[in-house]
Description:
By secondary structure, this protein is an all-alpha fold.
Amino acid sequence: MKISLPLVLTVSMFLSSCSVLNQLNIKPSALETVMALQEILNSSTFKAIRKMSALYAGDPTKSLPAEFTTVIEGLKTLGLGSEVDKITQQTGKVASLVLTESEGIIKESIKQIDFGDAVSIVTGGKDAATQVLKNNMKTVVRKRYSEKLNTELGISEVNTYWPLAASAYNIFAKTKVDASLSNFLADRAVDGLFLAIGHEEQEIRKDYKSLGVSVVNKVFDYYIKNKATM
């Protein structure tokens, strides 16, 4: 049977179109899904830290937990009132410095994270990836954050006075503070950082294509399109 050229061209174009459509809806591999989540978290971390750093640039003491001022005021009862402002300024500068350097700490943790069921995290919405990062890596991030803080604080006089202030505060306080300033600051800073990263993740999920990362587009396009049938 003789097949006409127009028919061949029509079939060829149809098959080609189907191929393109299939490629657009090919299920992402497990590696691609993990890579997409890593990209989302890396971008969320970058944006969160940049915004927080800009917020604290004018006044580094804004980066300090509310409890810090309350605790450090206890130095006045020990006759060290003249040191309060100095210590607050020193600590604020150190905390802001470590914040800017924490991007590397977080991103290194993102490389090591075990996402488990990555698909459920992609389709989980909101800050699902950030919560996995926090649950898996908070202890590691906190430890490294604390170590960095301790190194920087060691250059100042802060570590000399904080244990005194913390001891005085803890005598009457219902909620005790850590006698180690680096541990105390690391706890509060890491909690705040994860909260900010989670917010950025939510914003990115609303417009993930704005990242301009092909693997993110492929993964989220596929699972958003197929979510109803999953």
